[in-house]
Structures are given as structure tokens and as C-alpha cells.
Specification:
Growth Hormone, Chain: A, mainly alpha, single chain
């Protein structure tokens, strides 16, 4: 029997199976990231309120991921293992929410379903990060996170293109009728919900987990650690126990995720305004802009899928820190360049740079962190690390709307430029991170 202290070298297909669930998870996130602002605007949201309505997403991550990480660390079942019960439950709940989201008839309902959908996606997603640390030895961890990034990229491409596919190839209406969500968006979410469930189930039923090295000791510790109250006490106390590498990465993550949040929230109104010349979410031009944003996001997802396998090679020849710095600077410069572009085709070019940065954001920080964490606390610290993904998004959600209104004169594209500056700063801060593990 292999234990958590004796991890075998996994084959390519074993890495494939254990990561395939992320293909479905990214269907959820990509449809959410590409279409949420569009849905909110169609239901009557003002542009300067969008960031506040989006707060549902990072707040659910803040609440859900550390708790799920803690609970999964303290779970073991002879058949289901440690992480897979959470994959399974999260996938079912997320699929239900994805069927509900495009059927929202009023704004408050869409915001409420976003809370439900993002919570469910996070239940599935958080244990996937710890899954790599559980199953792979340090020499394979960068490759494991890269395989996840590959599936995130592939899922993002297809999911982001779905409204355009339904419009251009299946003749589905892309125009809101009586203020309702367009059929293209509804069908995209239905399809995505089905893919989410099926892909995660593939990982659940094709991958096995390594039991704790000392099962009796684990069971005793689990008894001692039971209870949500205990979980919250441990989680909050964890801030004083973070490894130095984790503290340094936190600052990098802060500016990276401010940039990404700005992009997800404001790309649709920016492109609809500057390229499709419409600020009316009920117009055909605005909805056409929404479809084009899906194509843009598909490009960055596709690039990230390809980059996922190149980045570990570059990291082995240089360092993970250097690769991450370079990728973030490229992504930041690309976001800033959108301000000067008025051709929809040319908008695809900066998405290449964003895709390079996205691949690195999904791979390098986690690979660096995994080498600095104790094996028996992998899910706990990975969940705690998510605080530095969601806190910057919460900060951005609170301040970006006011900045848009009072500082940027309601020009959404300037928020994208600000995001680009933040991403470049994150890249520069990467060089302060201590990474002792070998990148392979």
C-alpha cells in the first residue's frame, strides 16, 4: 500500500484522470466570468454597481474554501477517500445552480443564484488543489498543477464560446425578449451544467486516494478536530502559522487578483462601449459585444492551456519566480493595451498575453506553495491561501465602482488599465518570494 509518505510516480494518464474534473469546473467559472456582468446588466444593473453585485463570488470563496479545506483534511472514507466526497457534492450543487442562473427574472435573483453557484463551485474546486499535494511527490507537483491549468484552459475556451456557437451555428436568438436573458446564454449554462457534473464524476470514479500513513492516529486527530467552531478557530489561528513563502506570495496574489477581478467585471461593458458603441444592455449591439467578449476569453483560455505545458519547462531552466514575474508583466501590459484598440479582431491580440499570465497564476503560486507546506495540512493551508485570492476581489468590488464613477468618468476601459498596472506590480513583487523547492 502506498501512503502519504510514499508517493509513486504517476503516469501521464493518471495525471490526466485526476485533473480532468477541472475541465468541468472551469465550465462553471468561465460561464460565470464571461456572462455574469452581461446577465446583471440585462436585468437592469448600473455599470458602477456591477462590482458590488459581483462581491458574491469572492465572499463565498472566503467563507467556503478554508472550511472545505479543513474538513477535507479531516475526512477519510475507505471508498470515497479524502477529497472526492467534496468533488462529488460540489458538482451536483453547482450543476443545479447553473441551470437556475440564466432563468433569473429579476436582478436580486441573479445575485442570489451567483452566491449559490460560486459556493458550490468552490466546494468542488478547493480540494482539487490539495489533491495534487496529496498524490504527487515534489518532483511531479509542478506538472500536476500544469495539467490542471491545461484543463482549465480547455474548459474556458469551449465554455466562453458557447453563446457564439449557439448564435452563429445553431441559429439561437441572442436578443433579450421582454428583459429576459437571451436564449444563447440560457442554453450555454444548461450545457455547461451537464459538462461540469460529468467531468468531475470522471475524476471521482477514475482516481484513487492515498490513505493517511497512520490511520489510527488520523482517526483520533479527526475526533479532536470535529466541529465547524473548531474549524474556524483553526483557520483564523492559521494566519500566525503561515510559512514565510506563503506570506510573500500573498502580496503577489493580492495585485494579481485585483487585476483579474477588474477584467472579469468590466470587459463586457468596456468592449460594448468602445468597440460596439452601445451602453444599452437591451440592445442587439451590446449583446453582440457580450458574445465577442466570450471569444476574447476563449482566446486567453486556449493560450493558457498551451502555456501550461511550456511554463514548467521554462521554470526548470530558469526559476518559477522568474517565469511568474515575466508572465504577469506580459499580462499586465496586454490589459493596458486594450485602451488603444478599437477593432474587435485586434482585441484578440492582448488576450494572448492575458492567457500567458492566467496560465502562470493558476500554476506557479500553487507549485511554489506546495513545496513549503506540511503534507498533513495541505488542504487546510491551500484553503487558507485562498484568502489571498478572494480578499483582493472583495477590496476591488468595494472600490472599483466608485473609482469608475468618480475617477474614470464611467469609462470602464480605464478600470482594465488599472488592472494591468496591478498585474505588472504583482510580477515585480514575485522576485521577493522565497522558493526553495526544485521546479520539475
Amino acid at each position: 500500500m502506498h501512503t502519504s509518505t510514499n508517493k509513486p510516480q504517476l503516469s501521464f494518464w493518471q495525471l490526466w484522470n485526476m485533473s480532468f474534473g477541472f475541465f468541468g469546473i472551469q465550465f462553471g467559472f468561465a460561464l460565470q466570468n464571461t456572462n455574469t456582468s452581461r446577465i446583471f446588466s440585462t436585468l437592469g444593473a448600473n455599470p458602477d454597481d456591477l462590482a458590488l453585485f459581483w462581491l458574491a463570488a469572492p465572499i463565498t470563496g472566503l467563507l467556503v474554501q478554508p472550511v472545505i479545506g479543513y474538513l477535507s483534511d479531516n475526512t477519510w472514507h475507505a471508498y470515497w477517500g479524502r477529497r472526492r466526497p467534496f468533488f462529488f457534492i460540489g458538482a451536483l450543487l453547482a450543476s443545479i445552480a447553473m441551470f437556475l442562473m440564466p432563468n433569473s427574472s429579476v436582478l436580486w435573483m441573479a445575485v442570489a443564484v451567483l452566491w449559490m453557484m460560486d459556493s458550490a463551485i468552490n466546494i468542488s474546486m478547493e480540494p482539487f488543489r490539495a489533491f495534487v499535494g496529496d498524490k504527487l511527490n515534489p518532483a511531479q507537483q509542478t506538472a500536476g498543477f500544469a495539467m490542471q491549468t491545461f484543463f482549465i484552459g480547455c474548459g474556458g475556451v469551449i465554455a466562453s464560446l458557447l453563446p457564439t456557437i449557439f448564435t452563429d451555428y445553431l441559429g439561437v436568438s441572442n436578443v433579450p425578449v421582454n428583459g429576459a436573458i437571451p436564449d444563447t446564454v440560457r442554453y450555454a449554462f444548461y450545457f455547461g451544467g451537464a459538462v461540469f457534473a460529468l467531468a468531475v464524476m470522471w475524476t471521482v470514479f477514475t482516481s484513487k486516494e492515498i490513505p493517511p500513513a497512520d490511520l489510527e492516529k488520523f482517526r483520533q486527530e479527526r475526533k479532536d478536530n470535529q466541529g465547524i467552531g473548531k474549524a474556524f478557530t483553526e483557520i483564523l489561528g492559521g494566519f500566525t502559522k503561515m510559512p514565510k513563502t506563503m506570506v510573500q506570495l500573498a502580496l503577489v496574489q493580492f495585485f494579481s487578483w485585483v487585476a483579474l477581478f477588474a477584467m472579469w467585471v468590466y470587459t463586457t461593458p468596456s468592449i460594448a462601449d468602445t468597440v460596439f458603441h452601445s451602453t444599452d444592455a437591451q440592445s442587439a449591439a451590446y449583446q453582440e459585444g457580450g458574445n465577442w467578449v466570450g471569444i476574447m476569453f476563449a482566446v486567453y483560455g486556449g493560450v493558457s492551456a498551451l502555456a501550461a505545458f511550456i511554463l514548467p519547462i521554462l521554470a526548470a531552466k530558469t526559476s518559477r519566480k522568474f517565469v511568474h514575474m515575466l508572465c504577469l508583466i506580459i499580462g499586465g501590459a496586454s490589459l493596458i493595451s486594450i485602451f488603444a484598440i478599437t477593432s474587435k479582431q485586434m482585441l484578440l491580440l492582448p488576450m494572448v498575453g492575458v492567457g500567458i499570465a492566467w496560465a502562470s497564476v493558476l500554476t506557479m503560486p500553487y507549485a511554489i506553495l506546495a513545496g513549503a507546506l506540511p503534507a498533513n495540512r495541505m488542504g487546510y493551508f491551500m484553503g487558507l491561501f485562498n484568502f489571498f485570492v478572494v480578499i483582493p476581489q472583495i477590496v476591488a468590488g468595494v472600490v472599483l465602482g466608485a473609482m469608475l464613477k468618480y475617477l474614470f468618468n464611467n469609462q470602464s476601459v480605464k478600470v482594465l488599465m488599472l488592472g494591468g498596472v496591478c498585474m505588472i506590480l504583482a510580477g515585480l513583487l514575485t522576485m521577493l518570494v522565497k522558493d526553495d523547492a526544485v521546479a520539475k
